[in-house]
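Hey forum,

I'm writing up a methods section and want to include a predicted complex as supplementary material. The small molecule is flavin-adenine dinucleotide. I've pasted the protein sequence and the SMILES. Can someone with a working setup run it? I'll credit the forum in the acknowledgements.
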Amino acid sequence: MSLYDKNISEEKKASLEFAEASREEKWTYPSFALQIFHGRVDWPLIHPFPVQSPADKEKGDAFLRKLETFLRQNLDPNEVDRTGEIPEGVMKGLADLGAFAIKIPEEYGGLGLSQVNYNRAIHLVASYCGSTAVLLSAHQSIGVPQPLKLFGTQEQKRKYLPQFAQGTVSAFALTEPEAGSDPRNMSTTATPIEDGRFYLLNGEKLWCTNGLIAGVIIVMAVTPPKIVDGKERKQITAFIVETHQPGFEIAHQCRFMGLHGIKIGVIRFHNLKVPKENIILSEGEGLKLALTTLNTGRLTLPAASAGVAKWCLNVARQWSVKRRQWGAPIGEHESIALKLGYIASHTFAMDAMTWLTSAMADDKRRDIRLEAAIAKDFCTYHTWRIADETLQIRGGQGYEQAESLAKRGMDSWAVERVLRDIRVNLIIEGTTEIMHLFVAREALDPHLNRLKPLLNAKTSLTEKGKTFLELSQHYLVWYPGLWLPARKRGNALDPRLQPQADYIQNASCRLARETFHQILRHQKKLEARQAVLNRIVDIGTELFAMAAACAYADHLLKKQEKEANALDLADLFCRTASGRVDGLFRERRANCDAQGMSVARKLLDRQYEWLENDIIK
Ligand SMILES: Cc1cc2nc3c(=O)[nH]c(=O)nc-3n(C[C@H](O)[C@H](O)[C@H](O)COP(=O)(O)OP(=O)(O)OC[C@H]3O[C@@H](n4cnc5c(N)ncnc54)[C@H](O)[C@@H]3O)c2cc1C
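Reply by user p_vandermeer:
Happy to help. Structure tokens for the complex are below, copy them as they are.
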């Protein structure tokens, strides 16, 4: 079957329409990242860099101190990796500390900490034990507490939130064997019975993190379809499911490359009876709930990534000084020194993005959907590269397991475990590829909204004419403005950061022009041109990261403490990132997309099967 089979196109269209129907449409609050794609760098949205209030910081510091002491004294991450268990005593100790109720308001028995403090906790734990970080984060970034906080009724909050303070663990069940990135394929059903007062849940969920130990799970299931605009539309609804109910089955425990301590697997529902009161939001709003939960939920991934990157930085620094080869510490050989520069500068940028986006989430006067997706994408990718470079810097010892190293009296940094534990971050909570599509869709939204009537075949000619006039008025002002020399610098950054700020402004205008040209060129077909969209997204991502790094460096410079040399890190990061941006702009004309697609088509058609020779299949 060809890649471009008509049925596949129809199916693809249906999946896109389905996802579209569940996306958050409104932009109630401003988004710094959105504007970057439209030629505007609105510095006041991120500068001065947001800092924690002393009271909030003090609350967070007190919890972090207790958490760190507890982990150091009670948890051996290498043992978790080897045995596949987070010990009972650790689970109990974490519960006693309130680690399963970090963001839950105090009135429900939780710690009532802010998003910044919650992310600080995950950042700390991730730098020590990946499995424990994922246990805590799957439970409260996407598990029951988060959607309940966002959308739960008073009754639901009163019933469930206090349980988490006692140590009940929760989970989030969206994925199914046939529904990974594409939720339209979901087949778990919730059938209304007894006049709609209850639902019978049937089906199977895959890779539900914590699913094997959870007391309650938020489950997305298909409820009866509705007719929308004359067409039948699939409905997905979110239910709070108590796992002690008859009909809940743990079918399989999955084993992975890393994160050996997490309890994750296949769970099944057989006529499990759920009361109507356990629906969160309302019937048919389940996918919207899942997507909205993930907007803030995925902010823990940048936080965890930054924690891991700092751990790598620490290991790489120590080893590069200690290990001597060819008459010098390895850190003095240029190849290793440049790796160290990459690790330090990108860790700095990740730190900036993490605390900027976390503060935006607490502020609630910023739209963070683009920022969170960009930060997740950028930080998970670079942390993976950083861990890989750290392993390379450690040489053979990087590949050796920590316990084996310890037995031979060597430095026992578990770089190989860390590498195994973090790889999945490019897949969970939105794969890198899906994050690109998501960012592209949101970034193009203002244009698509304006152009929609023109692209719609059903719009009357009069209506099209009216829209065309309105569009002309807008674009005749906006577009020429993108060609003007750098506008007035609307920022109060340190003068040493101005060249970077100017670059961001100019590149943002160029990006906006480029995006507009691509819309005019490809029109409706642009949504299928992933290579074009990916370049647009990657440029916007780099510019957002550069802006965050500049705002953060400015803040540290003004503190005039030891971090004053943050300028070096921001400068190196911005130079590296702008090099990538320039390359991406060049690639829009000089690329091998057509050849790559052609080879892929032939490959799928088995035309290169001969290349798979002389191997054991
Ligand atoms: C350790 C672990 C923990 C997890 N925890 C949870 C959890 O707690 N709850 C939960 O519900 N799920 C969980 N998941 C599932 C996870 O969210 C999915 O793996 C993820 O959504 C991707 O789905 P998939 O693996 O089926 O990949 P697929 O959707 O099959 O994708 C395969 C590849 O194709 C790419 N791709 C797919 N569609 C497109 C497209 N349109 N354009 C371009 N590329 C595309 C993807 O990016 C990916 O590279 C977990 C998974 C793992 C491995």
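Some notes you might quote in the supplement: The first strand starts at residue 170 and ends at 173. The longest helix spans residues 334-363.
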